[in-house]
């Protein structure tokens, strides 16, 4: 059945989207307001051209690298995206198993439908896996502390402090559908049960706990004082904020615009990446997420100076398509594409992926 042949992430997106309700599909797939940034996140990759070296022995290509100090199969992990049990009942458990199966890292959203311990245990039962715990700054500091302590006790390696969300972006799809979390799904990390969550819109629910007074000097030293986990800032898009993260002694940044779901009109992450890499100057780790839909995108991000990348929606599409098997399929697809791209460009290790691997740039975009 050719309709069901999933050869690339776009095939998976189409097949998965057919299996979701309109409201779930729009919640997962949309960005904010005019959809400019979400669109550019993926299309901006097309302006870069690869510059291959030929007649290189690539029979022993090594795609591996390190993430949070652990060897990973290739430089890609799954971003923290909430509400995965709406795509498939096993939700984040299935994602964790798929990541462990391939040997890559996963970040757990505060809006996960399972606890950090359940998600870690599901992955660990398959193989070694590192997790990051995504965190929002919260009005209720005791709850924020419990989230951190539970994540640390469960064995998470890092905190991803999401810095781009003092308030939610304007997501018309959520207002149009009066989006509510489906009955029966809870947010155990946020200590919210299904009934409580369903009383309010996503936006009101977010505003009720999230602290829009968050800031560098209050929150980063506090995080350091309460946890041994690495501290990463997720949602940096400028050299200025990269320097702030260096100054505050963070372990790394994720150049991210929340998959185009927060402020629409900001730069695509691949366009914001070079200024952040330059400002970091090797003093802090730099990862990127947003719009990565092919192994060649992973390769281009590394060539532009990212050490590692993350994908959000592709994991959701995998889940919606076929639970863990769907996420396995998504990860295998990106892994195989990345490996083949390394071989076809003559790169034998991720260290070989440098600026010299990128050719003609069309400055006006695709
Ligand atoms: C997200 N993202 C996100 N980020 C975060 O810090 N906390 C969260 O709870 C969520 N939740 C969430 C839900 C859904 C449905 C999506 C699609 C995304 C953003 C996510 O971590 C990541 O930055 C983007 O998804 C990356 O872009 P791509 O790969 O989806 O294009």
Architecture overview:
Belongs to the FMN-dependent alpha-hydroxy acid dehydrogenase family. The active site is at residue 258. FMN binds at residues 80-82, 109, 134, 162, 234, 256, 289-293, 312-313. By secondary structure, this protein is an alpha/beta fold. It has helices at residues 9-19, 22-29, 36-43, 91-102, 116-124, 141-154, 172-176, 194-198, 202-209, 216-226, 239-247, 269-280, 295-303, 313-345, and strands at residues 48-50, 65-67, 70-72, 76-78, 106-108, 131-135, 158-162, 230-236, 252-255, 285-289, 308-311, 358-361. The longest helix has 33 residues, at 313-345. Bound molecules: ligand FNR.
Biggest sheet character: 8 strands, parallel
What is the rounded distance between the termini? 33 Å
The fraction of residues in strands falls at 5-15%
Spatial ordering of strands, largest sheet: 4-11-10-9-8-7-6-5
**What integer is the average pLDDT?**
96
What small molecules are bound in this structure? Answer: ligand FNR
Draw up the topology in text.
Layout: H1 9-19, H2 22-29, H3 36-43, E1 48-50, E2 65-67, E3 70-72, E4 76-78, H4 91-102, E5 106-108, H5 116-124, E6 131-135, H6 141-154, E7 158-162, H7 172-176, H8 194-198, H9 202-209, H10 216-226, E8 230-236, H11 239-247, E9 252-255, H12 269-280, E10 285-289, H13 295-303, E11 308-311, H14 313-345, E12 358-361
Parallel strand pairs: 4-11, 5-6, 6-7, 7-8, 8-9, 9-10, 10-11
Antiparallel strand pairs: 1-12, 2-3
Bound molecules: ligand FNR.
Ligand FNR binds next to helix 14.
């Amino acid at each position: 059945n050719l309709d069901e042949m999933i050869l690339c992430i776009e095939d998976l997106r189409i097949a998965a989207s057919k299996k979701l309700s309109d409201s779930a599909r729009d919640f997962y797939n949309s960005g904010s307001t005019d959809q400019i940034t979400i669109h550019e996140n993926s299309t901006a990759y097309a302006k870069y051209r690869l510059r291959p070296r030929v007649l290189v022995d690539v029979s022993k290509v090594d795609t591996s690298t390190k993430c949070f100090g652990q060897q990973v199969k290739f430089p890609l992990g799954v971003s923290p995206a909430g509400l995965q049990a709406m795509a498939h009942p096993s939700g984040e458990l299935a994602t964790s198993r798929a990541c462990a199966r391939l040997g890559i890292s996963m970040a757990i959203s505060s809006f996960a439908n399972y606890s950090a311990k359940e998600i870690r245990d599901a992955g660990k039962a398959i193989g070694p896996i590192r997790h990051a715990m995504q965190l929002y700054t919260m009005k209720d500091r005791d709850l924020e502390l419990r989230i951190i302590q539970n994540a640390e006790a469960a064995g998470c390696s890092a905190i991803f402090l999401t810095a781009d969300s003092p308030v939610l972006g304007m997501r018309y799809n959520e207002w149009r559908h009066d989006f509510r979390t489906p009955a029966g799904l809870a947010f155990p990390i946020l200590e919210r049960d299904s009934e409580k969550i369903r009383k309010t819109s996503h936006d009101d629910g977010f505003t009720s706990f999230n602290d829009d007074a968050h800031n560098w000097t209050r929150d980063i030293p506090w995080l350091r004082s309460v946890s041994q986990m690495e501290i990463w800032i997720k949602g940096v898009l400028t050299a200025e904020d990269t320097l702030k993260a260096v100054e505050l002694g963070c372990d790394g940044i994720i150049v991210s615009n929340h998959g185009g779901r927060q402020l629409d009109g900001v730069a695509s992450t691949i366009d914001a990446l070079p200024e952040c890499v330059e400002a970091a100057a090797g003093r802090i780790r730099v990862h990127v997420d947003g719009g990565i839909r092919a192994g060649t995108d992973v390769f281009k991000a590394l060539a532009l100076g990212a050490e590692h990348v993350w994908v959000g929606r592709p994991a959701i599409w995998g889940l919606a398509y076929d639970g863990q098997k769907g996420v396995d399929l998504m990860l295998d697809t990106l892994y195989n594409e990345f490996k083949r791209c390394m071989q076809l460009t003559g790169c034998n290790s991720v260290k070989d992926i440098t600026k010299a691997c990128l050719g003609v740039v069309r400055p006006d975009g695709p």
